[in-house]
Amino acid sequence: MTDYRNTWRPTASRPVLARRAEALAEIRAFFAARTVMEVDTPVVVNAPVTDVHIHSAEVRFPDAPGRYYLHTSPEFAMKRLLANGSGDIYQICHVARGLERGRHHNAEFTLIEWYRLGFTLEELMDEVEALARNVLGVVAKPMASERVTYAEAFQRTLNLDPFTAPLEILREAARSLGFRPAASRLASEKQTTPMRDLRDTTDIHEIAARASDPGERDELLDLLMGAKIGPLLGQNALTFVHRYPASQAALARLDPHDPRCALRFELYCQGVELANGFHELASASEQRSRFEQDLAERRRRGLSADKMDELLLAALESGLPECAGVAVGFDRLVMIATGAGTIDAVLPFPIERA
């Protein structure tokens, strides 16, 4: 029998909850000063995400036909607003992602997401840094600002070029993490074993063992970024890593000056990833092609692959304005601002107490 005498209580202290409230007010003031409009989009959506690393939670209603899903990000709905002429917009919302739990992960968490018309990737990085410094306060005050390319991050930590290094070199770099070929894993593991932040687990060998297929370069790069490079980033500076491989573009445009790279960045502070931003892809045909590739890969991995979001594709077809957008993990910002060691310490009720 479950003992509820203590588990009914929040895991965040009263001072931390007060800091969360202050931070939310600061963020809204930040965007109000820049005349960016706050919007509110549905948490229940028509299609799951196709990204192979993100897993949607299904929702069923007794009086509505078909299947629905909790959104993993408000991105698709916000892009439909942009295509309809909303102008600059932001949102602070709860999102849900399955198969994620760890020191920096809860199944339900808060995102700050915004889109700026006409912004370059560099201009958006400037604005993300300004917001992060606002929320982090005295923690960020002594920290410098650093911007490195994805290739530079690999070069300085692992002394290899992620774009040209042979697969065997990447495998060798991953072996120290316990990497072993996919043939030694059961396909069912991918469906039954939760994926976690590589920095969250004490059993890095278990994570490495199922995190990559030896023939898939991106899986090895993800493992190395998550377990070896990421934890070293942002120790003395707010560090932006940009120009990710084109194969990891997701919903970002490719760099016209170097088509090997996507116009995408991530922000790290104290080894924690805080933000993921794109110069947004506007081509409906290219986005459909990427969705189809995602779904094929999900099927290959034995993951659910239901459908793609046709409403987003229709919006892109109608015309998405030139823009850049970003998602920032609010709970992680509060973690660093308060010196908390885990995400649970800044949440009222993590998934086990929800």
Main β-sheet description: 9 strands, mixed
The helix-strand sequence is HHEEEEHEEHEHHHHHEEEEHHEH
What's the shape?
A: globular
Structural class: alpha+beta
Distance between the termini: 18 Å
- Which segments are poorly predicted (pLDDT under 50) over 5 or more consecutive residues? 181-215
Indicate the CATH topology.
Answer: BirA Bifunctional Protein, domain 2
Which homologous superfamily in CATH is the superfamily? Bira Bifunctional Protein, Domain 2
Q: How many helices?
A: 12
Number of separate strands: 12
Output the radius of gyration: 20 Å
Proportion of residues in helical segments: 25-40%
The CATH architecture assignment turns out to be 2-Layer Sandwich
What fraction strand? 15-25%
Mean pLDDT: 90
Number of domains: 1
Polypeptide structure, described:
This protein has 354 residues and is an alpha+beta fold. The protein has one domain: 2-Layer Sandwich (BirA Bifunctional Protein, domain 2). Helices cover 36% and strands 20% of the residues. The protein has 12 helices and 12 strands. The strands form 2 sheets. Strands 1, 5, 6, 7, 8, 9, 10, 11 and 12 form a 9-stranded mixed beta sheet that branches. A 3-stranded antiparallel beta sheet has the order 2-4-3, with no helix packed on it. A hairpin with an 8-residue loop joins strand 3 and strand 4. Helix 3 runs parallel beside helix 11. The longest helix has 20 residues. The radius of gyration is 20 Å and the shape is globular.
